[in-house]
Write a structure and sequence with these properties.
This protein is α/β, with parallel strands linked by helices and 473 residues long. The protein is built from eleven helices and 30 strands.
Length: 473
């Protein structure tokens, strides 16, 4: 039985402004109607279960993303074996160690949540080859058969062949090369792209981690031992895990072990690490343009090899070539396709300036539903709030703002101080500053309200939670 371990902790900054740190690319529908996380799970369902038995996945994510993971799995009728919540990001080696310690008898198939693999039968074939090697005690990585001299990927040099199916001893892991070096790698035929995907027995990974990084293993063992269950999640103990070394599986184990094996993968793989990469895997028109309309619209005249995405507004483009244009509800990004790696520099500038656009969209998802910040000024803010059927916000109060609620659709159950009331469409209520209050949806359909906040400070950190069914502080 293979246990998929899906790494879902990335921030996806190179796909800003569509991807944000609190709503990154793995939770977005980039190449189909499914999100990247859902695509990762769904392709495993398409394996031939008679030859490769796949169990429900373990998903590793940070606490901020936990309800998005659970909801997206539920939307495709999938139950996770476990959802491990990392209190801090400590890179891939500790994350995989947590999964291995939690499931020590399993064979782990480690997969990033944000890759595209279009040829699923070929992917399944490579996994089958890797299983044979893992059963022999090997630690297997998958090497992507390169299609170009890419400088944005790490490479793995292949060594002695092990079987007649392509599996080889790993000779060397190498860093991202310059263009000349990358071209020499391709000419040699000895190098594959480093995919970041692995397969091995959990027990073997633990053995090798103990040999090469015992401090990391001890921290992970203590963190797992102190872990607690929280709804559908396993919450890793923060104080212990904070001391864990930060390192990738490549550096911590794979470059040091004598049992590293690489299996080639030629399955139309892409890590969708930039807008140009997304352009490559998306459907293009006769002029090489990718046109993606969300709720927006696009009028494109005489453009070539462009990526244009409109989420809300009308975008009109004329005579562009090799340009990326992406519009969201609160930002517009325009870039030469050859410079899209520099998007990360923009995000760093936003972080430095402490701007919310680096981490949040205007629409913010919560475990109970979502809110959309419609308008704001110096002493007011207007939000559209949608609460799922049967869901409720925390019992809370605010030190700096009052709130007016108007029900647009559905039925609202409102607690305000000692009073509890039911409000229907077109009815409203007022929550004074400092008053304890709670909003919930007792109905069978979504509840939609308009909230008007007024006060001296309107930040999200002016929420004092007194009770919360979702375990938030």
């Amino acid at each position: 039985m293979i246990l998929p371990v899906i790494l879902s902790g990335g921030s996806g900054t190179r796909l800003w402004p569509y991807s944000r740190s609190l709503y990154p690319k793995q939770f977005l529908p980039l190449v189909s109607e499914l999100t990247m996380l859902q695509e990762t799970v769904d392709r495993l369902k398409q394996f031939n279960q008679d030859s490769l038995s796949i169990s429900p996945p373990v998903v590793i994510c940070n606490e901020d993303h936990r309800f998005m993971v659970a909801e997206q799995l539920r939307a495709i009728d999938t139950s996770a074996s476990d959802i491990l919540l990392e209190p801090f990001g400590r890179n891939t080696a500790p994350a995989i160690a947590l999964a291995a310690l939690a499931h020590p008898e399993a064979m782990l198939l480690v997969l990033p949540a944000d890759h595209v693999i279009q040829n699923i039968p070929e992917f399944e074939r490579s996994v089958s080859i890797a299983v044979e090697q893992a059963n022999a005690g090997k630690l297997v990585t998958f090497g992507i058969v390169p299609t170009a001299a890419e400088t944005g990927y790490g490479y793995v040099k292949t060594g002695t062949a092990i079987d007649n199916q392509g599996a080889c001893v790993v000779d060397q892991f190498v860093e991202k090369p310059d263009q000349t070096t990358a071209e020499s790698y391709i000419r040699s035929g000895d190098y594959l792209w480093n995919s970041g995907m692995f397969l091995f027995k959990a027990s073997r990974y633990i053995e090798e981690l103990k040999k090469f990084n015992p401090e990391m293993l001890v921290c992970c063992e203590q963190s797992i031992a102190a872990a607690t269950r929280d709804l559908d999640f396993t919450r890793i103990q923060a104080d212990t895990f904070e001391a864990c070394p930060d390192d990738s599986i490549d550096y911590a184990v794979m470059e040091k072990t004598k049992d590293a094996v690489i299996v080639p993968l030629d399955a139309q793989w892409n890590d969708v690490g930039s807008w140009s990469a997304l352009w490559e895997v998306s459907k293009q028109d006769n002029a090489g343009n990718v046109i993606k309309k969300g709720k927006g619209d696009i009028i494109a005249l005489d453009n070539n090899n462009c990526y244009i995405q409109a989420e809300h507004k009308l975008i009109a483009t004329i005579g562009l070539k090799d340009v990326v244009v992406v519009e969201t509800d609160d930002a517009i990004m325009v870039a030469d396709k050859s410079r899209v790696q520099d998007v990360k520099t923009i995000v760093n500038q936003l972080k430095k300036d402490k701007r919310s656009e680096c981490s949040l969209h205007r629409k913010v998802y919560r475990p109970w539903g979502y809110y959309d910040s419609i308008d704001s000024g110096e002493r007011f803010q207007v939000k559209r709030i949608v609460v799922n059927s049967g869901a409720q916000l925390s019992l809370q109060m605010h030190h700096h703002r009052a709130e007016h609620w108007v029900v647009v659709e559905g039925t609202a159950k409102v607690r305000c101080g000692e009073k509890t009331m039911l409000l229907s469409e077109n009815q409203s209520t007022y929550i004074p500053l400092g008053e304890v209050h709670q909003l919930s949806n007792p109905g069978k359909f979504p509840l939609e309200i308009i909230e008007v906040q007024s006060g001296s400070y309107l930040g999200e950190d002016d929420i004092v939670r007194l009770e919360d069914v979702y375990g938030r502080e």
